[in-house]
Amino acid sequence: MNYLKKLDFLLDELRQHRNLEENLSKIVRSLKSDLDFQSMGIFTKIPNHDLFRLKISRNISHHYEKKMLFSSNDPIIQKLEKLETIVVDSATQYKFEKDFSQLVIIPLHNNHQLLGFLFIDRSYGSFNDLEFTLLEIHSSIVSLGICLHQQRQLIEELQQTEEITGMYKYEAFCQHAEYIFALMHKTKTPLTATVFKVDDYNQILRTFGLEAIHYTAAKLAEILRNSLSATDILGKVYKDTVAILMPATTSESATEKIKKIDQKFQKNITLHKIKIGWGIVSCECTNVEQLIRMAEQAAFESTRKRDTNITVLE
Known about the structure:
The protein is an alpha+beta fold. It contains 10 helices and 11 strands. The chain has a 6-stranded antiparallel β-sheet. Strands 8-9-7-10-11 form a 5-stranded mixed β-sheet, sandwiched between helices. The longest helix is centred in the middle third of the chain and has 32 residues, at 129-160. It is elongated and about 80 Å long.
């Protein structure tokens, strides 16, 4: 297969909906068939962090692969932020696991943003001009692969979440919840479901309008995201009902957390005559849907109470 056909094949592979590791493996195999090298690796940026980890490698030990991380403060990352290739002929400044005669570090980027980098080294000799060109071409294809993967993830997230609140839609929430329920049940770890329900939603809609409701919903969702644990998940059950699944959380711990959240809700709700009822359930159930329905019923009962707006079932 000549180079043009091979590159066309790699680009075509990227169009297929495969995971990132599989696509990177194909690109690495292509490089390996054309170049002699000692070791190589592809680092990618961890989403929402300033860290770069080794995503895929060749001739690198498992120990090194697991421990190696770069932060945005590392000199090598700061230099790569300029989106220029680094070529090193001695290990005095940069080195990965092995000593080398030449090391090439190529930034992976899109829209002037660093996505990661590719490194490749030789224990003897240097890469010639043709090999440098192949490295640059393959690194561009890797950059496209990473960017395409990010776009696919974004599309999936947008399909699963609401535009106004950023919460999971009910179907997506149930999929995540079922996995967490099975895991907590298997490990005999506490699991608590919490639901809050807005009383008389239709009357509020007629009084204040949809725009005001959307604004308030966005504010409440922000409070929830800032107050809950990273492992807790949020889902919209109905237009007036939200479910929260809290893994590794007892009902006592969940109740204390919800009391604080409810206080923040009361301070930030600008629409008058809104009552929110909370239901908190942590008990043996046959499935996660039963757990959520029990919490939903408890939340409904809370909207009818005068002395409290939180009902706890154990």
